[in-house]
From TrEMBL:
<comment type="pathway">
    <text>Purine metabolism; AMP biosynthesis via salvage pathway; AMP from adenine: step 1/1.</text>
</comment>
<dbReference type="InterPro" id="IPR000836">
    <property type="entry name" value="PRTase_dom"/>
</dbReference>
<dbReference type="GO" id="GO:0005737">
    <property type="term" value="C:cytoplasm"/>
</dbReference>
<keyword id="KW-0660">Purine salvage</keyword>
<feature type="domain" description="Phosphoribosyltransferase">
    <location>
        <begin position="20"/>
        <end position="111"/>
    </location>
</feature>
<comment type="similarity">
    <text>Belongs to the purine/pyrimidine phosphoribosyltransferase family.</text>
</comment>
<keyword id="KW-0328">Glycosyltransferase</keyword>
<dbReference type="InterPro" id="IPR050120">
    <property type="entry name" value="Adenine_PRTase"/>
</dbReference>
<protein>
    <recommendedName>
        <fullName>adenine phosphoribosyltransferase</fullName>
        <ecNumber>2.4.2.7</ecNumber>
    </recommendedName>
</protein>
<comment type="subunit">
    <text>Homodimer.</text>
</comment>
<dbReference type="GO" id="GO:0006166">
    <property type="term" value="P:purine ribonucleoside salvage"/>
</dbReference>
<dbReference type="GO" id="GO:0003999">
    <property type="term" value="F:adenine phosphoribosyltransferase activity"/>
</dbReference>
<keyword id="KW-0963">Cytoplasm</keyword>
<dbReference type="Pfam" id="PF00156">
    <property type="entry name" value="Pribosyltran"/>
</dbReference>
<keyword id="KW-0808">Transferase</keyword>
<dbReference type="InterPro" id="IPR029057">
    <property type="entry name" value="PRTase-like"/>
</dbReference>
Length: 144
């Protein structure tokens, strides 16, 4: 339990004092970290799911996974209102395609322009997509 608490604290440390209204995380391993981060911040939690896993009205976002396959992610349409600051959480950012799709979902649902509050993952690889994320968004990760 202490290792999980320490990891989440490390991921959230760069965002101390930043306005965060809700934590969104990506299906499925990201849910563990995202739920822990939301609990630690005492904020709401939003699941960004694979297509057709939610039984409510959703916004869909196509993406390409790290093997080049086309996939779709979804989020409920009523979870984000204009002006909310969303922290995006996943366990691993390899190419950045999944996180980019999650960012597009959050921005499409009403996050304030121009960006979500930030992006955090256990590891963000030094790929083209990982570099893009770190250049464009406030990011945190635990594994160098």
């Amino acid at each position: 339990p202490q290792d999980l608490q320490d990891s989440v604290a490390d991921l959230l440390q760069p965002f101390q004092g930043d306005p965060i209204d809700k934590v969104a995380s990506i299906d499925a391993m990201g849910f563990i970290l995202g739920a822990a981060a939301a609990a630690m911040l005492q904020k709401g939690f939003l699941a960004i799911r694979k297509a057709e896993h939610l039984c409510v009205l959703t916004l869909a976002q196509p993406r390409t996974d790290d093997s080049g396959r086309e996939k779709v992610m979804e989020s409920r349409t009523d979870a984000i209102s204009l002006g909310l600051r969303i922290l995006l959480v996943d366990q691993w950012v390899k190419t950045g395609g999944t996180m980019r799709a999650a960012i597009q979902l959050v921005e499409g649902l009403g996050a304030p322009p121009p960006r979500p509050a930030g992006v955090t993952a256990i590891c963000t690889e030094d790929s083209e997509g990982g570099q893009w994320l770190q250049e464009c968004y406030k990011c945190a990760h635990c594994v160098p």
